[in-house]
Amino acid sequence: xxxxxxxxxRFLRSFVIVLAVFIAILLPIDLAEQLRAIGTPxxxxxxxxxxxxxxxxxxLYRMLPLFIILSTLVLFLSLSRTSELVVVRASGRSALKxxxxxxxxxxxxxxxxxxxxNPLVAATERQYEVTIQQFQTGEERTLSVSGEGLWLRxxxxxxxxxxRAARANADGTELFAxxxxxxxxxxxxxxxxxxxxAALVDGAWQMAGAKIWPLTVANPEAEAVTHETYALAxxxxxxxxRDSFGRPSTVPIYELPRFIxxxxxxxxxxxxxxVWLMTELANPLMLAAMVLIAASFTMRHTRFGxxxxxxxxxxxxxxxxxxxxxxxxxxxxxxxxxxxxxxxxPPLAAILLSLGFLFHTEDG
Length: 364
Known about the structure:
61% helix, seven-stranded antiparallel beta sheet, 18% strand, 12 helices, single chain, alpha+beta
């Protein structure tokens, strides 16, 4: 038990060192990138630093598998260099038993990331997207899905339009039973438009079966007019509507199942969000796989030589598994793989592969 605690502490210390090094590297780089991305004379170094801080948690969270594999390499290379790994072996512990503490610590880090860091990252990324959008375009586009249907807001300094629809097609460019509430720049309601169907075309919402109420008169119903077809100007595009959902990472893990249910009720497939949810749930296993991959190549004494090659092989295999997970995630989001297969197969395959290699090289 004492040895397990010792190895866990060493692994945690290596993880903190690796994390601190990457923060020191990423923050100045991202600061320079934010200065370029803002592109407005009104924003300076303080605003860029604020954006960099908002962007940092998400960047670190996405790189968590890399931190874990580097921490494991640092741990076992240091144990080999000081011959502590030889002492551990001499005490009767096999290679597999020596990896128990780092594996459990990686799973614990993954659970902390899932339950605590994930909601924090969601909040910072949402705020980052809102802030950078205001700096770059000055326009506001917000989409939300609730039990009452789909809500979308478009507009700029000249005014706002709030859109509600009972349901939509898969990419949100065709709305059914839609209502449009048009406001001026001061927030005064100008008119309401109800349409049986509204399709987004270049620069406008093309409506069918539209009824328009002017809200600036005493009796809007008396002044209401109907049109078989009607066009309302819009600055939205298909990509902007899709992006308005926000990346799945901007939705906290606790709210994601309900958000997915609302998306599907509104007519969206929500494949991207479903794959993201499953991938997040599988992330602790992915971190455990990274520990086993690094351990399989570095649990050997440095006097055997070829340490650099072994470290390179471990990193290449770790990056390969990470790429495989990203590729499977893309296939899942496009519907070419079942969601569970896309999320759980890469970490499980990595664990089995690394265990097989570890048994072959270390335990005969």
